[in-house]
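Quick one: structure for this chain?
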Amino acid sequence: MEENLANRSRAELETALLDSAHALQATLATQLQSFDDHFQQLLNESERALQDAFPGAFGELYTQGAKAFRDLYAELRLYYRGANLHLEDTLAEFWARLLERLFRQLHPQLLLPDDYLDCLGKQADALRPFGEAPRELRLRATRAFVAARAFVQGLGVAGDVVRKVAQVPLGPECSRAVMKLAYCAHCLGVPGARPCPDYCRNVLKGCLANQADLDAEWRNLLDSMVLITDKFWGPSGAESVIGGVHLWLAEAINALQDNRDILTAKVIQGCGNPKVNPQGSGPEEKRRQGKLVLQEKPPTGTLEKLVSEAKTQLRDAQDFWISLPSMLCSEKMAMSSASDDRCWNGMAKGRYLPEVMGDGLANQINNPEVEVDITKPDMTVRQQIMQLKVMTNRLRGAYSGNDVDFQDASDDSSGSGSGDSCPDDLCDRRVSKKSSSSRTTLTHALPGLSEREGQKTSAASCPQPCASLPLLLLSLVLSAARPTWR
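Got it. Here's what it folds into:
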């Protein structure tokens, strides 16, 4: 009977812990989906604006560059979702491809073989055919996309950590201590006595000692996430840049048209006179003089609202792991409102005298209620502490505009809840054979977008209370004791 009661006690506590974790998971998953939808929408709207405005303004120049534009937006999406792309090199390759295509279109009367275009590409930095647009876009985009990607990844990692740690099983010593806390008062004939507050806290601090060790790195992660939202605003902010990529592209083509004659003369000076294409049309025949002037779309206020809500929720979640014992005692167990002579102290009705233990594994060495081996930390929890450290390092790098490469330290980096948002064939894709060395290793695919599926998987594996009790006496005891758990 004692073993069944202990198992019942453990299952009830694990279920209560999972309920608390699922509430936080749902909050983080909602935030992740909202921010991801907004950033994706900004990029989609920028591409639509390009497709609407460029054909009429630039004609054949747009037609020749259309594939390069599509590829650029595709690569920006891949980068945002965690692909192993070096963003600065991706942009450099885009400008090189675009210059080759548009220079051909501007000079259909000339034969421009590959070696001539290679010469053109080598001089591009000095010639600056697109004016300041490439440099400005590079400086702004690297900071904006790095910040947006790191923030959304942080939400996904936080949700993953909560999910995995909530499934860590409780040990037999904890089971016995919770059984004594919840049921022994009934067994000893004092069913009306509720557990003393400090007694309940000591039991759950011992049971959840490993989980409490997440506290420091968990706070560091959430602090870093709150801090990086500062990078969402201003001319180089995520909203302005991600939603305004097409503005820099329009400025670039305008500059190319304005500088066409000077550019052509310098190219001929550096690369020689190309041969005339006998089948080509004259340079003036398809030349477009249209100049496109686009206005930046004013912010809608959506991101500002999302950030405000996220900051509040992240700050509220900062003490989640160390507040679990008090929260579960208050919300899930019928704990006494005061520590007095009428509460259950584990032995009888009476005041609970031992001091309350500190948080974390090391502070449980003298826990009077749960025997905790402080030399054997839980490996799942330790792995998740490392995940938090790695993601915090990434966020701090992103705050400075740096994309910190790292390998996923999790034992199941591709598991449910981690997203797999970027298929391997796309994440490993190479845009140009000439620059395969510009690619970095896969860092961390955008996590958490399959959070709902992850929750279903977690729920399916939740330990449930024992459905059958063979002894009639045990059934009667449980029936009388059940009000202890809310």
